[in-house]
Design a protein that fits this description.
Chain A has 148 residues and is mainly α. Chain A is 45% helix and 7% strand. Classes of the chains: A mainly alpha (148), B alpha/beta (1144). The interface between A and B is medium-sized, with 12 and 15 residues.
Chain lengths: 148, 1144
């Protein structure tokens, strides 16, 4: 389908805790799901990636304007990749980047990692597709009631 | 012959392992040197150049006296010594027993390539289909599954990487010498029987295990299994429990009756685990729960297999064990890698960079970017990657990286022809050895290398230019960007893989970071008596410190061996009477080897034999099969005994392999090995690769006749020996001198210890504690009582050396005591341990106020309670007083540690004291770093100053005000202190006239000048004189003791021999031709020549002469002659080489 994906390196799991090995694992999973040729890394990446701008409790603490401003770097990184999707394996990053996509007009999709895993396995239900774009909304929809 | 006592095991054959092994071997002990790698040299095999010379120099570790016992070529290419057995691909499994009588078990990884047959032709590499990253180049290049572990060994047999090899067998097919035996290996001999009623289980198990090269048979019932067990001896049986007919438990019982040694593993489903446990009580080793996965099964099988193999491991009885396992390095991709190591190819580790500089490396030695091959013009080094990093649990300094980064920068500059921007990003430049600061200054001033204090936090790639954009914060908190082609990460030390297990096996302790822990005041002792640490296993060390520690470890091992009844004098073994062939006409035996038939295929050996036999000096020619094998060699020995030749010429392959055998042959037959020669007939044929008989015969005949030509004209003189006065003289009775004296006396040799003061002890008389908290008084008392109790040590107090003369083996020293009484002492070796003192100063207002003291004064005041710490509110300390700048441009190494010690002591006693330390680079090297961390946590302030902006001190009443620039806030600050402590450093106390008396040199700062600061760190250039302690270099007590032990060890190499034997090839002088121009004297690199003025003769000291031939080359009159390489001989060889008739 020629859809390009990029991946966010959440501070919580990469820079702050497990470092390079988990960043590699994350890429292994993402590439396995979307195909190596459809994956594009943002710059910089892995341990060197930037914070989404919503970390450290910022997402919940108000100051929306400032938070979005901090997120400008992240948005710029994602837009520079030209990817239609950004995969975020952290719900905090997801919420922030989703908001960045809307407010800076990038209009890329921001999806959870589990969404993509389930989609690739063919077990993503019809009501679990809120963050998928129209291009993927109808792909391999899983209906447990009819599948059983 | 039993060598139960008097042999040592050295584990790890890196630099320190080689040093320890050579030291013990030179003392006359038998040594087994093992390494798990397939090559010698450890880390150093990958590094070409070492500072301060920016060259190699490893060969300088080879024996200089009695040198014929050892190999005499490049040590990177290989080593042999008649007392050393080298076992590569070998690991230590266990050590049991007591000091003096350990039983060590070793496991040798089988080698599928027979090193005796492999001729290194490389045909196997061409056909090998497997490619994997090459560890030798740190994974930057790729190699085949059959490969050379290092490119430079002699001989250099190929080996097979078991993990990578697919066992396709292609190499075996092309090998011309049939050296490869892929399938003849013990896994195939390990036979496994699988018993299960389900075919799918049987088949899948068989397939899985066969993939691992095991030989597997299957049986579908208990009855069939028992039949098979009766017919074939299996080693392992895997049996199902639930089977129709006979169940698994019954099979187990009956099988055990048939084969009591059979190992049985039960297979079961969850439901019958209890039965399986029951079965284990009946003798089953273990059980597997079905369904099982390969990931679970195979490791278990391998464990069982290895367990059985271990039972058959090699067992050695040794008296002492030296552990020189080295260290490994931090891998940045295992952590938070913000510097982009695993993301960008142009970010490399220091080891990878060393390989990039090497012509055998990934870029052929060119400085080009790994990413796109463009030339490199800007390189940055980033220090302390994986060191001094609490996040990575690395609260230590790796000690060597500052100096190796400077060296790498200088090498890179030289390689790039100066057109290179090199910057080193650092926290502290730890140039803590005596010559290091000057090396750094030179790098900065003469080579234009930039030093930038700060840490790079992020690397980003500029995709357009391919440049790395490095972001760093300077000390004022400003963020900068720096664009570079290459970023080198100076990665820190980590324990070697398997260190924990090794420590457990040996019963030694590890420190908090997993390195071997040492005992107080020793770098080498462990809690387990008889097991010693050498080199970097107790923390990374540079070459000189490794070599010192290795000799110290050898000394302690030797002490254990000696105490257990092993003696230092070499074993008298029945040697054949030396054959006197002087003035005899040459009568040569020529042996031609068919090289397993391979040589015979290319040339007609009979023609060659006939040609050789036509030479009148040849008594007999014999053609033999495979001289390299044990049987083949026996035939050679037989021939020599029958023919009784006075010259022996062997034509075969790989002459280097024979050096050791020739010495044995000399031992057995009495024919001097200098009258034997091995020439390589095989390799030239391979190189030419044509099968044409005539040219091949000609060249082979030439080679053979060259060998014969050299042999014919050898003057068969017996080797010269020089008697040794087996007594040592130690000058200086501080801790180093006392330690050295004890070390020598403990080996049964008398020692004279000369001390100028009224009591021994030196600086121990005022020191009380070390930074680690060890009490120095206990050390002093114990050492002193051992000195007093030892009848072999004569202590001369209030005495000094007036004059001395002589050389190794025989010195005469005149000493004078307090009453002016003189006496002369004859001794074989001299150890200088004259010590050093705290330097005096007039800087920073010293002398103008009682509140300004030196470190030593502080220690004394604290000890005699003339200073009450409770009265102190603020203490300031200034480091590097008059040090690390001309004229005393060296680091005294211990002052930073001392300041940390005083600061922590004061802070612990009175937590309210404010302590401010003004420093330049804090030299908390190695594991001292953790005390630096502790000090910062305790609230001690560290303020950095630079030599051009030193702190200003003025006295205000009883207080001292220190004014300095605080670089972080970029403002001047003032500290009003009750006490100012000045770290003035150490000055040596080695009088120039003493140095002159013993013929040694001093360095610009008055310290002892080593023969080679890296490779012979305690030897003087003049053999027989050694130095230790503070007169050698500034060191801590523990480090001084190590130098003393090393010096004693080096001295014992000489003392342990009743006489020193010169090499077989030494220079002489034909006095009738000599014009006394003395060119040879200045040319001799070993100071082996001197002018004997009274006799008007140039004389050669035969033991010191190393047979290099430089003197023969410079002599304008052919008066200087190198025996074994005379001019006539060389002309004959040249004639033979250019093909004039063989029978000339």
């Amino acid at each position: 389908m020629k859809i390009k994906f990029t991946v966010q390196d959440p501070c919580q799991i990469v820079r702050k805790s497990f470092g390079e090995p988990i960043a590699e694992d994350l890429r292994f999973v993402v590439k396995s799901i979307v195909g190596e040729e459809n994956f594009i890394d943002m710059e910089p990446n892995r341990s060197n990636n930037f914070c989404c701008g919503g970390g450290g409790g910022f997402l919940q603490s108000g100051f929306k304007e400032q938070r979005l401003k901090y997120g400008k770097v992240k948005d710029g990184q994602i837009q520079a990749t030209g990817a239609q999707y950004c995969i975020a394996a952290c719900h905090n990053c997801h919420a922030q980047i989703h908001e960045l996509s809307e407010s800076y007009g990038g209009h890329y999709q921001v999806v959870h990692l589990w969404t993509m895993i389930c989609l690739s396995l063919g077990i993503l239900g019809p009501n679990e597709r809120e963050y998928l774009g129209n291009d993927l909304k109808e792909v391999a929809v899983f209906h447990p009631e009819t599948a059983m | 012959m039993s060598r139960k006592i008097g042999t040592a095991l050295v584990v790890g054959a890196g630099i320190s392992g080689i040093r320890s092994a050579l030291d013990l071997a030179e003392n006359g002990y038998g040594v087994t040197l093992i390494d798990r790698a397939p090559h010698l040299g450890g880390l150093l095999s990958q590094l070409d150049y070492q500072f301060p010379t920016d060259r190699c120099g490893m060969c300088r570790m080879l024996p200089l006296v009695n040198r014929d016992a050892s190999s005499q070529y490049c040590l990177r290419k290989g080593l042999f010594h008649e007392n050393i057995d080298i076992l590569l691909n070998t690991e230590l499994i266990s050590v049991d027993g007591d000091p003096g009588n350990f039983e060590a078990r070793l496991r040798q990884t089988p080698n599928w390539v027979d090193p005796a047959l492999c001729i290194g032709c490389g045909l196997c590499v061409d056909v090998c289909p497997v490619e994997v990253p090459d560890d030798f180049n740190e994974g930057l290049t790729r190699r085949k599954a059959i490969y050379l572990p290092v490119p430079h060994n002699i001989p250099n047999p190929y080996i097979i990487d078991f993990a990578a090899c697919t066992r396709c067998g292609e190499c075996q097919k092309v090998c011309p010498t049939r050296a490869i035996h892929l399938f003849d290996q013990e896994r195939g001999r390990f036979r496994i029987l699988v018993v299960d009623d389900e075919k799918i289980v049987r088949d899948s198990l068989k397939a899985l295990m066969e993939e691992e090269d095991f030989r597997v048979d299957t049986a579908e019932s208990g009855a069939q299994a028992l039949d098979m067990l009766a017919a074939t001896p299996y080693q392992l049986m895997l049996t199902d429990i639930k089977m129709p007919g006979m169940d698994g438990v019954e099979v187990l019982q009956k099988a055990k009756e048939l084969l009591p040694d059979l190992t049985v593993v039960m297979m079961t489903a969850y439901a019958t685990v209890e039965t399986a446990v029951e079965a284990m009580k009946l003798g089953a080793l273990d059980y597997l729960i079905k369904p099982f996965e390969p990931g679970q099964l195979i490791p278990m099988i391998l464990r069982i297999y290895q367990g059985l193999e271990t039972a058959q491991a090699l067992t050695l009885n040794v008296g002492a064990v030296v552990l020189s396992g080295g260290t490994s390095f931090y891998d940045p991709k295992t952590g938070k890698d913000t510097l982009g190591y695993s993301t960008y190819p142009d970010v490399v580790t220091s080891l990878e960079f060393e390989r990039i500089l090497n012509p055998m490396g990934p870029t052929g030695g060119k400085l080009v970017r790994l990413s796109d091959g463009r030339p490199i013009t800007r390189i940055a080094w980033m220090q302390c990657v994986g060191s001094r990093d609490l996040h990575e649990n690395a609260d230590f300094c790796s000690s060597i990286c500052c100096m190796s980064a400077i060296k790498e920068a200088r090498l890179a500059k030289a390689k790039a022809g100066g057109d290179l921007d090199a910057t080193i990003y650092y926290m502290d430049m730890r140039t803590f050895n005596k010559s290091f600061q000057r090396y750094r200054d030179q790098a900065q001033k003469a080579h234009g290398i930039h030093f930038q204090r700060g840490r790079i936090h992020t690397t980003v790639l500029d995709r357009k230019t391919g440049e790395l954009v490095l972001r760093y914060t300077d000390i004022n908190g400003k963020i900068h960007e720096d664009r570079r082609d290459l970023l080198v990460l100076s990665v820190g030390q980590r324990p070697i893989p398997g260190m924990e297990k090794l420590a457990e096996t040996l019963g030694i302790d590890l420190n908090a970071w997993g390195f071997a822990a040492t005992e107080p005041f020793s770098q080498t002792r462990t809690p387990k008596d008889g097991i010693f640490l050498s080199g970097s296993s107790s923390g990374l060390k540079d070459i000189s410190d490794s070599v010192i520690q290795a000799s110290a470890a050898a000394l302690n091992a030797s002490r254990t061996l000696h105490a257990a009844g092993g003696h230092l004098s070499p074993k008298p073994s029945p040697a054949a009477e030396p054959m006197d062939v002087f003035r005899q006409l040459p009568k040569a035996l020529v042996i031609l080897c068919t090289c397993n038939g391979a040589l015979a295929q290319k040339i007609n050996l009979n023609d060659l034999a006939a040609k050789a036999a036509s030479d009148p000096s040849v008594a007999h020619v014999e053609v033999l099969e495979r001289v390299c094998t044990a049987e083949g060699w026996d035939q050679v020995v037989e021939q020599v005994k029958t023919v009784r030749p006075n010259r022996l010429l062997i034509g075969s392959c790989l002459p280097h392999v024979y050096a050791r055998k020739l010495r044995k042959l000399e031992h057995e037959t009495g024919l001097s090995s200098s009258l034997m020669e091995v020439v390589d007939l095989r390799t030239p044929l391979l190189v030419r690769g044509d099968a044409l008989p005539d040219p091949a015969l000609t060249s082979t005949a030439e080679i053979l006749s060259m060998g014969l030509a050299r042999l014919k004209r050898i003057e068969p003189l017996p080797p010269v020996t020089v008697p040794v006065e087996q007594r040592a003289l130690v000058v200086g009775g501080g801790i180093a001198g006392m330690t050295a004296a004890l070390a020598v006396a403990d080996h049964g040799f008398p020692v004279d210890l000369i001390e100028k003061e009224a009591q021994v002890g030196g600086n121990l008389n005022w020191l009380s504690r070390t930074l680690e908290g060890y009490e120095t008084k206990a050390l002093f008392d114990e050492t002193l009582s051992r000195i007093e109790k030892n009848p072999l040590i004569r202590v001369h107090l209030k005495s000094r050396v007036i004059d001395a003369f002589g050389q190794e083996g025989h010195f005469v020293t005149s000493i004078e005591d307090a009453d002016g009484k003189m006496q002369s002492i004859a001794h074989g070796v001299t150890i200088l341990a004259t010590g050093g003192n705290e330097a005096k100063t007039t800087a920073y207002g010293y002398g103008t106020s009682p509140a300004i003291v030196t470190q030593k004064e502080l220690a004394v005041k604290l000890e005699d309670k003339t200073l009450d710490p409770a009265q102190l509110k603020t203490v300031a300390m200034i480091q590097c007083v008059d040090s690390r700048e001309e004229p005393r441009n060296y680091c005294s190494r211990i002052c930073c540690a001392s300041s940390l010690k005083f600061a922590l002591e004061l802070k612990t006693l009175h937590p309210d004291i404010q302590i401010v330390i003004f420093y330049r680079d804090l030299m908390a090297y190695g594991f001292y770093e953790s005390y630096y961390t502790q000090a910062r946590k305790a609230g001690i302030l560290f303020i950095q100053y630079t030599p051009d902006q030193k702190p200003q001190v003025h006295v205000q009443d009883t207080k001292v005000v220190v004014r300095a620039l605080e670089p972080i806030i970029a403002q001047d600050i003032e500290v009003t202190a009750d006490l100012l402590v000045l770290a003035t450093g150490i000055q040596p106390a080695l009088p120039p006239n003493l140095a002159k008396a013993y013929g040694i040199s001093l360095d610009p700062d008055g310290f002892f000048l080593e023969a080679d600061s890296k490779w012979r760190p305690v030897d003087a250039l003049k053999e027989g004189v050694f130095a230790c302690g503070l007169s050698h270099s500034p060191r801590s007590i523990t480090e001084s003791i190590a130098t003393a032990e090393a010096a004693a060890q080096r001295a014992l190499r000489i003392l342990s021999h009743a006489q020193l034997t010169a090499g077989k090839i030494v220079a002489t002088v034909r006095h009738s031709l000599c014009s006394l121009c003395e060119q040879c004297i200045s040319a001799c690199p070993y100071e082996a020549r001197a002018l004997w003025a009274e006799q008007e003769k140039v004389v050669v000291h035969p033991v010191r002469c190393q047979g290099c031939g430089t003197c023969a080359a410079v002599c304008p009159n052919s008066a200087s002659v190198l025996l074994g390489f005379t001019e006539q001989q060389m002309f004959d060889v040249i004639d033979a080489a250019i093909g004039s008739a063989m029978c000339s």
